[in-house]
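Page 47, continued from p. 46.
Same chain as before, 449 aa.
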Amino acid sequence: MNLKAGFVGFGEINSPKQLIENKCRSALDGVKSLGIEMVTTDVVTDDARGEDVIRAIRDLRKSTFDVLIVCLAGWIPSHAVIAITSEFKYKPMILWGLCGDRENGRIVTAAAQAGTTALRKVFDDLGYRFVYIYNIIGKPLPLDRIRSFVLGATALKSLEQAKVGMMGFRDMKLYNTLYEGLSLKAFLGVEVEFFEMLEMVQLSEKIEDRQVQEILLKIKREWEFIKPVDDAFLIKGITYYLAIKKIAEENHFDAISLKDVDGMKKILHFPPALIFMLLSDEIKVCTIPENDVMGAVTQLIVKHITGQCGAYFEFYEFFERSLLVGVPDYVPSEVVDGKVTVTSAAFGGVSGGLLNISTVRTGKLTMVRLSNTGDQYTMHICTGDGRLRSWEEAGWDQPAPQLPSLEIFLDSSIDEFSQKVSGQHYIIAYGDYTQALADFCYLKNIKVV
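Result:
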């Protein structure tokens, strides 16, 4: 992910010039250490002719960036800051107050927090979308907070042209997979475009055998097959994948969902796990079954913030201290611990096919889902620790397969989670991304629950 920020440091014209410059340089170096590309200018003072302000605006306009970091190393009259920020008022900002030092048992300060406290409410009243942070003497720079905000702000821009490709509509007549197109476009810039199952089938009939054989040989080489899967089934799935790949590339889809139960399985008699696996692993699009539009949009948010694929999981059991989540079909190879493992299996009235039974990575993770009521959007965010647990889903042929799954021990109470749960599909990312997701929601006026 390409993170890019503008940086401008401030200090009052009568403050020690070298002190102000050194503190701003140290702060800038800290931000650069996060891997963030910087657009910079020299320190700005409140000089009488306003030449520093003019120069800073000119320098910052030389390149694009997603976040403006306003860094005060000392006191500065507010007008010098606002003259610059008003030129970039449409961008997310970080108002950052540096701190003084301890020397010979006493504190020596240039009064940066006088400058930031004079600005915080002004920023708010001017309608800026910003976060206010400050240094503390003797403590590390708040770099994690800066990175989280930059991640959230960068995702705003990158999502503006995102597209979800949807084959079919409202699988199983579900309600919570529906969406409201105009507000989704207005809030996030995400488009949802539909294509027909017939289009996929017609394109699949024109796929070259050479393309099919290349992928067939690859998966046989890279995947572990516990039970053999018929070549004819694999070939059909690969041709369907290549057809959807062509549709996705022509339409610039970033995420794809298919009509699963009432489409692929009922009409084509083809469980689509193989197709989803190839879409996820070969062309790196987000994938989720059952026409789950809001799940797909959540995946895109997670991917744009974390750089991860945003795998989906659904709920199977609630316990006193944990949740059992799993998938009845597939997981992307990115979340697999070890080798991708598949088998042939049958469930209920759907026979044959391929099932992913890979072991999922464990550890600290974030679970999230975006939802809406009309044009009001909320995001449910929680963190926990994912562990392995043996279980099976009733209905599979015996011996039942061990589905990809995790028992997640939440950092909040299960009852609290249950009263906020907003769908059967939640998206996970490994690590704690609560703050970056919350910053994204703040910048987009999405309520966090």
